Backbone:
């Protein structure tokens, strides 16, 4: 007996998807309209979208403190990328170990639980005092912020695995701990681990701004801070828009990677 | 009559208890002894949640009995034993693997050569009627198709004994009926020793060479039926209906 592949009704999909593709543009349009209305009262304090856009174009052509707007974006992104990369390399194995081994959970896991409730921003003064205000301290700050969600999610992902999958592994020749870990536990936890990486990315974007606002000569946080110091509202808002765009791009990128890595996960 | 059969699996006096809400130990499986013969289709029939699954987990080595032992071909089972092919009640397909990768999981872990296991897997994929779905993921399949994958996976691992734990319990009546016939076809083409667990009397009678009827919790053997009706069986056959009535009257109510 053979079963025929079912075709999803494309007609049905089309009918609803067009409407849902238009809606986001409408709501974003509304946001810009409200911005216009609000900004007309005092352009010095609340510049119009036009002014901010023109400022961004100007910033992209002329360097400010050695970089164009794109350059500043690049500097911030590089800091995020390096720290995030380190956090993934260290955080995923750490979280997996905490979730997999009772011994590690009882020791390192306990320490982690103690540190976890301290908000990341509270670490910044300590980092500045210990590591100064150079590149190193920024990387460490962002790394710390990204590490927490990655470790926590990796750990939870491992803990949440259905015992059924482990039974399946054992009944189908995954006889060593390593085989179980590699072929059952890690793939089963991958979507949760990835959710942690996504959280870590937004944490990293937040902390890179904070770190750059404290002391930096480049980066989007620096731009925003410089704007504040000289009361240049359109510069501040240019930085804000740029960080929003950066965040959105990074989100698109992580979603893309996740879909490539976990093609079976429909929730993406 | 039983003398001419070779005993593959010997279950001797196994018991298992679990702590209940008050913290006292409560028996789930009470002193069961059972021989499984080579090539037979053995059905374990009992009311829902009567302890059949506990018994099965002990046979598979996923659970340790408090007392007694399980011996397969002269070797005592003390840990999960891949020589038993398990078809899980909840299918247990690994969602991150395609149909083909799910089915070849066992041989891959064992380090078999890809050419050999792929060929074997394809044979069983064709046999369970999943040709063309090799690259699909489990979420793309219906409940009945998922359990077909489960069956193909168990066969491809070349087990000495196949254990099917209420494999069709989650399916609707119609699909269930067609899956029962499917299993019968497969058994005809590829004879193996099978232990099949169910709470459905008709299903037991359709498939089983021998039916072990269990009491309600804790599981004890109540009666053993030899089903001497030639296959494929007709549900309206006189002997079939009489046996069905007899078993039905003998079955404890699951409350």
Residues:
């Amino acid at each position: 007996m053979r079963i025929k592949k079912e075709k999803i009704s494309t007609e049905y999909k089309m009918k609803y998807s067009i409407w849902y593709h238009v809606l986001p543009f409408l709501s974003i349009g509304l946001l810009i309209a409200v911005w216009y209305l609000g900004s007309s009262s005092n352009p010095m304090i609340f510049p119009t979208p036009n002014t901010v856009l023109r400022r961004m174009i100007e910033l992209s052509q002329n360097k400010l403190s050695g970089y164009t707007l794109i350059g500043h974006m690049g500097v911030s992104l590089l800091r995020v990328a390096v720290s995030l990369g380190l956090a993934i390399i260290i955080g995923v194995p750490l979280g997996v170990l905490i979730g997999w081994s009772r011994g590690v959970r009882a020791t390192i896991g306990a320490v982690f639980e103690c540190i976890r409730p301290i908000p990341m921003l509270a670490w910044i003064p300590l980092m500045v005092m210990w590591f100064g205000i150079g590149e190193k301290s920024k990387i460490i700050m962002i790394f710390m912020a990204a590490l927490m969600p990655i470790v926590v999610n990796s750990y939870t992902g491992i803990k949440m695995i259905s015992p059924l999958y482990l039974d399946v592994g054992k009944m189908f020749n995954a006889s060593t701990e390593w085989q179980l870990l590699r072929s059952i536990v890690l793939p089963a936890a991958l979507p949760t681990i990835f959710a942690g990486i996504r959280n870590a990315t937004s944490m990293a974007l937040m902390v890179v701004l904070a770190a750059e606002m404290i002391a930096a000569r480049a980066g989007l946080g620096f731009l925003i801070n410089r704007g504040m110091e000289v009361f240049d509202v359109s510069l501040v808002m240019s930085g804000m828009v740029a960080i929003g765009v950066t965040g959105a791009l990074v989100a698109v990128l992580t979603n893309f990677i996740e879909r490539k890595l976990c093609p079976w996960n429909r929730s993406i | 009559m039983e003398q001419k059969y070779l005993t593959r699996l010997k279950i001797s006096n196994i018991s298992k208890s679990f702590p209940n809400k008050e913290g006292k130990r409560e028996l789930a499986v009470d002193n069961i002894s059972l021989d499984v013969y080579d090539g037979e289709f053995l059905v374990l029939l009992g009311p829902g949640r009567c302890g059949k699954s506990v018994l099965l987990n002990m046979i598979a080595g996923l659970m340790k009995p408090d007392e007694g032992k399980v011996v397969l071909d002269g070797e005592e089972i003390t840990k999960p034993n891949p020589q038993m092919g398990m078809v899980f009640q909840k299918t247990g397909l690994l969602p991150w693997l395609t149909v083909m990768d799910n089915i070849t999981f066992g041989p891959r872990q064992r380090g078999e050569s890809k050419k050999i296991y792929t060929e074997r897997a394809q044979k069983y994929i064709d046999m369970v009627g999943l040709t063309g779905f090799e690259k699909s993921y489990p979420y793309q399949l219906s409940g009945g198709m998922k359990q077909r994958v489960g069956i193909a996976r168990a066969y491809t691992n070349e087990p000495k004994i196949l254990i099917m734990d209420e494999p069709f319990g989650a399916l609707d009546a119609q699909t269930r009926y067609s899956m029962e016939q499917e299993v019968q076809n497969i058994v005809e083409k590829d004879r193996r020793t099978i232990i099949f667990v169910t709470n459905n009397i008709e299903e037991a009678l359709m498939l089983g060479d021998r039916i072990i009827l269990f009491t309600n919790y804790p599981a004890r053997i109540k009666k053993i039926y030899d089903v001497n009706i030639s296959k494929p069986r007709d549900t309206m056959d006189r002997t079939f209906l009489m046996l069905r009535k007899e078993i039905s009257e003998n079955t404890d109510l699951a409350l």
Observations:
- Residues 73 and 189 of chain B are 24 Å apart (CA to CA).
- The mean pLDDT of chain B is 87.
- Chain B touches chain A through 33 residues (CB under 8 Å).
- Helices of chain B lie at 52-60, 99-103, 105-110, 114-127, 143-156, 173-189, 201-207, 238-250.
